[in-house]
Task: structure prediction
Amino acid sequence: MHARCGYQEWHREVDKEVIVWLDRYSKATPKQFMDKLREIYSRPEMKERFPHGF
Result:
C-alpha cells in the first residue's frame, strides 16, 4: 500500500504533534500516551490510511 511507504509529510506532522504532546505532558502515564495515539489514529484521515486501526 502506497500510503504506508516512505516517510510522508503527514507522518512528519503526526511525529511533531506527538513530540509537542510529550513535551507538554512529560509526566503522562503509558495509558495516557496510548490514549493520545488512539485519538490521533481515530481521525478520518488516519482511518483512511489505517483502516484496520491502531
User: Anything to note?
Assistant: The two ends are 16 Å apart (CA to CA). The chain is about 65% helix and 0% strand. The chain has one domain: 9-47.
